[in-house]
Every structure is written in structure tokens, then in C-alpha cells.
Automatic annotation (TrEMBL):
Domain of life the protein comes from: Bacteria
Compositional bias of kind Low complexity: 108-118
Region annotated Disordered, chain positions: 102-132
Name of the featured protein: Cxxc_20_cxxc protein
Biological classification of the source: Bacteria, Bacillati, Bacillota, Clostridia, Eubacteriales
Species of the source: Caproicibacter fermentans
Length: 132
């Protein structure tokens, strides 16, 4: 499937290894060692579906064991944990790198500078200073 792939740098197209991707999932930005570009780390939207399915399948296994259709032993515990392990392994292939959004600064209203300084003549140039 096209959705399952290694993340690529959006600037130079350099693929990132699985071990680096595993560590990147918890960070917010990625600095490409090849081109020096900074990109945001986001997870694909498909991750929510896989998380829901992992919870649902584990709940079904637990309910089947709780109702007595399966014996409560170590194998049932492994069956309940298996969907979460698969989710954790699949999530590595759903990491994406995006170029950060560049926000343009808007001009301040009224043409006033943002630091609060006033326009016009500086101090000592008004009528009171000319009378001295």
C-alpha cells in the first residue's frame, strides 16, 4: 500500500531509516543531516483507525476470555496484548515529515510600529524646546 512507507525529507527526499523513525515518533521536529532542512513530524490519519481496531480486537479477546469461552491463562493475556504490539510496529510506517508552514507577518494597524514607539519628531524638537 502507498500509505505504508518510510518517511522522506520534504526538502531533499532522503529516506529515514526505521530505527530513526522509531525515535522520531515522540519528537516534534526533524533536522535532516543531508540538507539541513527542518520539518515537522506528523502521524498519518490512518493511525487513528489502527488504534481503534487494536482496542476493539483486544476488548473482544478479553470479553471472550471473561465469559468463559477461553481459559484464563497466559495465552489469553498474549492474545489481548498482540493487537497493541502490532499497532506499535505498524505505527513506524505511518510517520510523515511536512514542511513547516511559513507565516507572513501582517503590517500593524494604522502603520504604527509594534514596539510601541511613536512616529514624528523626536524629543526636544517641539515648541517648548524652541523657546529656550
Amino acid at each position: 500500500m502507498k500509505k505504508f512507507r518510510k518517511p522522506r525529507c520534504p526538502f531533499c527526499g532522503n529516506k529515514i531509516g526505521l530505527a530513526n523513525t522509531w525515535a522520531l515518533k515522540t519528537q516534534g521536529e526533524y533536522l535532516c543531516p543531508k540538507c539541513g532542512g527542518i520539518s515537522n513530524i506528523v502521524m498519518d490519519r490512518l493511525i487513528y483507525l489502527f488504534a481503534f481496531l487494536a482496542i476493539l480486537v483486544s476488548a473482544v479477546f478479553f470479553a471472550v476470555g471473561f465469559l468463559g469461552f477461553l481459559s484464563l491463562d497466559i495465552w489469553l493475556l498474549l492474545l489481548v496484548l498482540l493487537p497493541f504490539l502490532l499497532f506499535y510496529l505498524i505505527s513506524v510506517f505511518l510517520v510523515r515529515l511536512k514542511k513547516p508552514a511559513v507565516r507572513k507577518r501582517r503590517a500593524p494597524p494604522g502603520g504604527r510600529p509594534q514596539n510601541g514607539t511613536r512616529r514624528g519628531p523626536g524629543p526636544g524638537t517641539g515648541p517648548a524646546a524652541r523657546r529656550r
